[in-house]
């Protein structure tokens, strides 16, 4: 099931694993496995990918990073087919993503003897890119009958949904805000009026989807396989300039 009505669907370059993710969700639909189990599995896959990067097994690293991306989509798909949406799963997914991103980039920085300032700038850029993509995407999903567990402004602790405990939601939301708050605030400050503007055109969303985590992991995987790991950190620092390009287009024309 798409998160957007047909008219507003766009080619999401970061969501290449969605068909496989749906297949995984359908296989697990009648089993005891939960979306959180799948989230844990993508964390394991990501950590194996990090180990392979550290050991120089770049093809294996690419496999596990892309598998992580597929499983990252599968947990949400499983929640939809089982009709068990939860804030616990939503925030656990996001917290896991940012921690894995930091570990991946730091590992690459260590192996390439990159100054930590530049390593951190790449990580910061990756997170800002992802935040802009999610910001615009959630605006569309909220406006056009999207899911209920993602909000444009994550400014207060949500009320637990049936089947989850409020204490878990509260704890994970606190961790989420601690890790993502600065990125959210920067993007909101750069484009506060985005929720009030015209719907974003599909072509623009396709371009912005290159900021999605799935595409970022694909880019990292390609650089690794080509044995160009030294270019990963400079690439993400430089590519962050497009944050301002996309925001300018949105503010100027939509």
Could you give a short description of this structure?
The chain is an all-alpha fold. The chain has a single domain (6-253), classed as Up-down Bundle (Four Helix Bundle (Hemerythrin (Met), subunit A)).
Overview of the structural elements:
This is CDP-alcohol phosphatidyltransferase. This protein has one domain: Four Helix Bundle (Hemerythrin (Met), subunit A). It is globular, with a radius of gyration of 18 Å. The longest helix is centred in the middle third of the chain and has 28 residues, at 116-143. α3 runs antiparallel to α8 (213-225) and α5 crosses α6 (166-190). The chain contains ten helices and no strands. The chain has 254 residues and is mainly alpha-helical. The two termini are 27 Å apart. It has helices at residues 18-28, 35-55, 58-81, 87-111, 116-143, 166-190, 202-208, 213-225, 232-239, 242-253.
